[in-house]
Design a protein that fits this description.
alpha+beta; rod-shaped; 5-stranded mixed sheet; 5 strands; about 270 residues; 60s Ribosomal Protein L30, Chain: A; single chain
Length: about 270
């Protein structure tokens, strides 16, 4: 009986040892799997963090690309406007240059035609030149008038007529007539008060002659008096004073055409 009990006890011990060994083995496996699971969880967290970073980076890149797209579009429009403005300005400069050259050519033709028509007149009495882009015909006082008078000499009417023939061929031009005196005070009388008055009356005499006798359109004519205040020479010598006593016929482009010439093209903002 004791022998059987011993055998049973031994079998139980062996069985328990086997069960315990299996249990210990599985516990070890479970611990290993738990460790691996923890490691996997850590890796998953890392991956999730990396995915989050990548998503943030991608979002930032998309925003930057969108900004760049907007900037690029705006920049392109700005560049196009700038190029268009440059093109307009270049065309304006070319047109202005062409018109200036055309005006210079016209001035040269006017000077040549007037000088040709006045070839038999003393150069000291009539001077023709271009100043400031306009044609000046300066006629001496001794050719045009008696001393202190605004009445035009009959011999001078021929000179005015020849100038009128030239300007009547160019209806696009205006004529400004300026009277000038020296600085010797004018002795006032019933007809002329002073040098201002004399210079204006001499200019209006020429304008009236151009209109009434030589049919220059009055809309093209202006009369002005400068008195002694725009001298050509010093008034300290008889020769200087003689040069200052003159009437100038100034042939100019019409002001509306002149301002149109200077108009800038419309520039985009």
């Amino acid at each position: 009986m004791n022998k059987i009990t011993g055998i049973i006890a031994g079998a139980v011990v062996v069985l328990l040892a086997s069960v315990y060994g299996t249990y210990a083995y599985h516990q070890k496996e479970i611990a290993t799997l738990q460790t691996q699971l923890v490691n996997r969880d850590g890796q998953v967290s890392q991956y999730e963090a990396q995915i989050g970073n990548l998503q943030t980076t991608n979002s930032n890149l998309l925003n930057r690309m969108e900004d760049l797209s907007i900037i690029g579009k705006t920049g392109a429009e700005s560049i196009n406007k700038s190029l268009d403005n440059i093109s307009k300005q270049y065309e304006f400069i070319e047109t202005l240059s062409t018109k200036v050259q055309s005006k210079d050519s016209l001035n040269l033709a006017l000077v040549m035609n007037i000088k040709r028509s006045l070839i038999d007149i003393n150069d000291e009495d009539v001077q023709v030149e271009v100043k400031g882009g306009v044609v000046y015909v300066s006629i001496s006082d001794k050719l045009l008038y008696e001393s202190g008078s605004s009445k035009i000499n009959p011999a001078a009417e021929e000179v005015i007529g020849k100038i009128a023939t030239v300007v009547n061929d160019h209806e696009e031009l205006n004529i400004l007539v300026e009277g000038h005196t020296d600085d010797v005070p004018m002795v006032g009388n019933k007809c002329v008060a002073d040098n201002w008055d004399l210079s204006v009356k001499r200019a209006t005499s020429v304008v009236r002659l151009l209109q009434q006798e030589y049919f220059v359109s009055p809309e093209r004519l202006t009369a002005a008096g400068r008195s002694e205040f725009l001298p050509k020479e010093m008034n300290t010598t008889p020769e200087g004073r003689s040069a200052n006593r003159r009437t100038e016929i100034i042939i100019t482009p019409r002001l509306d055409q002149f301002f149109q010439l200077l108009e800038s093209p419309l520039i985009a903002d």
